[in-house]
């Protein structure tokens, strides 16, 4: 059949793109929602949990503030690298998609395995437990809230937000927008009260003589653990890369959102910690299980109840953001054939990845009943930093492997090299200081090797296994009303095509 003139083909393409009946992921994330996804995922429970861990390991107020400031700078370096990767490899899935594209299936699967098995369910569980603890704090003012009550409330919150994310992408992003503004207002209240304290002359703990005085000099390993605690509070800076395919004009809005969000969060975090230290002694902060609540009780009087409510709203938005983005990781993994195909399906009307969302919710509820928050943060932070380093090392390798590939954004080599130097030092000293924590993280990742070879690499499985998978997939489709998304060939530009065209351009120039 004659395809017709080029102009007519373009019109047909436009019509197809605008076809509302095509079942595919919707591009509904603009610049504002992109910023709120990054800010909302970073500002979850970390800023309300990690100050205690950072101060405990660093040993002084001054070093703790430096750790927070440098933590933001490191996150900024990493986000610049991810901006380049995000527009060069425009796939949803973040680290997993980039590592799979650059290093191959096994490396990508190991990141996916550790993320799905522990990293994101654990982070979601920690945020959900923080939410329930702050909600229940006014009900149990003189004691720790009951174990069962916190778990039940956390599970209820998770189920509610899973339903919202299954129902509508637009509703999920609106919740993210609203609660991100709310959590910035909560931190703004803490900062404002702290600045008033400083204005009134109550800043003894922040003077250089007091801020850097310490009973013991922290070891390099202890400082590395302080950075790991701070990195938990900054984790989420790369989460917009998990939903690249749902971002409007990703090559423009992805880097813009990163450039706006990371400096803003670093600024807010540093001022929040200054506010804490202006009003609380190091001893008070270390003895508090809910830093923001203790801060409110000391300074807000009858309005102190606003603090646990504000923190709970902040963590509620964090849970929503993590559910939204981590479910897209499962979706991307299934689409590459590394997870069951059911997880790559979306609802035929709402266009949401319902099976992936349900798996994320179920995994988090299981993790809720396992482990202690402080240790879980260390495990997650180590695996997080490991995956960040591998991904950014992949950027350098990809520059060497495909030098002519079109890159809308190309950061200076100094940026990934500086990040990797810090990464090597941090992980090395963490391994030396906490070999058990880091060893458990490595073991979790390596358990994915046999799973990969049995589940993915082994193609000649018995027919009964394939029949069982087909039946389970069919039942899942009928229960969730999901189908495979329909990808428009016009929307997909393969990496090889971009490489060839950029190679020709470089030869012509």
Describe the structure.
The chain is an all-alpha fold. Helices cover 73% and strands 1% of the residues. The chain contains 21 helices and 2 strands. A two-stranded antiparallel sheet has the order 1-2. α6 packs across α15 and α6 packs antiparallel against α16. It is globular, with a radius of gyration of 24 Å. The N terminus and C terminus are likely disordered.
Task: Spell out the key features of this protein.
509 residues; mainly alpha; two-stranded antiparallel ribbon; 21 helices; 2 strands; globular; disordered N terminus; disordered C terminus
How does the major sheet shape up? Answer: 2 strands, antiparallel
Low-confidence stretches: 1-18, 489-509
Spatial ordering of strands, largest sheet: 1-2
Q: What does the overall shape look like? A: globular
Instruction: Please state the CA-atom Rg, rounded to the nearest Å.
Output: 24 Å
Order of helices and strands: HHHHHHHHHHHHHHEHHHHHHEH
